[in-house]
Amino acid sequence: MYGAQAKITNPRADMSAPSNRFNLIYFISLILAPLFRWSQKIPALLLTGIPSCCALCGHVGRHAICSACDQAYLSHERTRCQQCANPLLAIANDAALTCGDCLKQRRAFDASIVAIDYAAPVDQLVLSLKFGSQLALAPIFARKLRDAVLRNPIITNNLPDIVTAVPLGPGRLTERGFNQALEIAKPLSRLLNIPLQPTLIKRQHDTLQQAKLSPQERRQNLRKAFIVPPQALTQIHGRHIGIVDDVMTTGETLNELARTLKRCGAARVTNFVFARTLPK
Q1: Which residues is 111 bridged to in the sheet?
Q2: What pTM value is reported for the model?
Q3: Mind listing the pLDDT tens digit for each residue in 164-223?
Q4: In this structure, what are the phi and psi dihedrals at residue 273, rounded to the nearest 5 degrees?
Q5: What separation in angstroms does the CA of 192 have from each of 3, 121, 145, 161, 162?
Q6: Handedness of CA 119, 160, 97, 220 (dihedral sign)
Q7: DSSP for 202-215?
Q8: In whole angstroms, what is the distance from residue 110 CA to residue 166 CA?
Q9: Least enclosed by CB within 10 Å: which of 48, 75, 158, 268?
Q10: How many CB atoms lie within 10 A of CB 172?
């Protein structure tokens, strides 16, 4: 009988213990939650105090490229062909002018915007992004491209509906770990307020490096290299598509991409490229 009474009274005491523990844990969480939220900001606060070295001159500062190098190497304006972005003579001030090569040879893309010439020391910046994984340079490239767009009223008044990046092949993407063109496209899409669609077009296989090939070999190398996934067809038809890349040399890669997009119904294709190789 005595034991039976213990069985009746003890469960009430057992029920109150978890409740007390729960109240204690809840009370502690109310105290720690603000501290946890604040602690998440500590890495960002620490990074703002860490100095950076300029990628060009090595000067210690807070930016990946110092203001002096930015002014000396990344702020030059050129009159360029509206279609392929090759430099034109300084006397040709009409932004709608097209170079002789583009007049003789029809291209699949309709326009190109370039921020800077691919020449020393800017070429080292491109190589640092592509092969040195210096991803902090990508937003800088994007801002320079945005500035080039704002200087060109024809492009500013006719921005693409969506932008994508020149895709890498599966092997090269695995080897590198990132697509440098896509890293530029991400901040550029935000700066221009244009939606980014990174899977709009796909490279079917890894191609040979274009720089090592003759013009004819380059065209052959890129033949049937790109496809549009079926789910992306509705996003392309009748739309103006922007293609982002880091360097434009002969334009064969961008031309093949534009040709592929237009076969799938794209109305217009504009290239956004950070650096343009100078014609020989």
Answers
A1: 270
A2: 0.78
A3: 999 998 888 888 899 999 999 999 999 999 999 999 999 887 665 655 655 555 666 676
A4: -125, 135
A5: 79, 27, 10, 11, 10
A6: positive
A7: EE-S----GGGS-H
A8: 16
A9: 48
A10: 14
